[in-house]
């Protein structure tokens, strides 16, 4: 029988890049900042948007992935322009991840493809 030889892998000790922030987390932070800047209460904004305060809280904390209709309802309740919000979110994600705008850029890490 053949001997089994151990496989020694050289481990590099370099800093792993920070993972990209989740879009829903940055969205939630942006919505909460807009609400707090206006001095709005969670319950009042949720009522104007037609959603429960609990659901709005989960959106703001980045726990829920809201539909486009929910995002539109919340931005409408806040009186925030959706396009401005999205541009701000894109800038925040770029700043946090340290990347520049690269349309058509291939992802650097593993990618999960949905069928």
Record the SSE blueprint.
Elements lengths: L22 H16 L3 H8 L3 H8 L7 H11 L3 H16 L18
Helix pairs in contact: 1-5, 2-3, 2-4
Q: Can you give me a brief rundown of this structure?
A:
The chain has 115 residues and is mainly alpha-helical. Helix content is 51%, strand content 0%.
- Low-pLDDT stretches: none
By DSSP (H or I, 4+ residues per run), the number of helices equals 5
What's the helical proportion of residues?
40-55%
**Number of β-strand runs:** 0
Shape: elongated
If you compute it from the alpha carbons, what radius of gyration comes out, rounded to the nearest whole angstrom?
A: 21 Å
Major β-sheet annotation: none
Distance from first to last alpha carbon: 44 Å
The share of residues in extended strands comes to under 5%
Instruction: List SSEs in N-to-C order.
Output: HHHHH
Q: Output the structural class.
A: mainly alpha
Average pLDDT for all residues: 83
Please describe what this structure looks like.
- This protein is mostly helical.
- The protein has five helices and no strands.
- It has helices at residues 23-38, 42-49, 53-60, 68-78, 82-97.
- It starts with 22 loop residues before the first helix and ends in an 18-residue tail after the last helix.
- The model has no long low-confidence stretch (mean pLDDT 83).
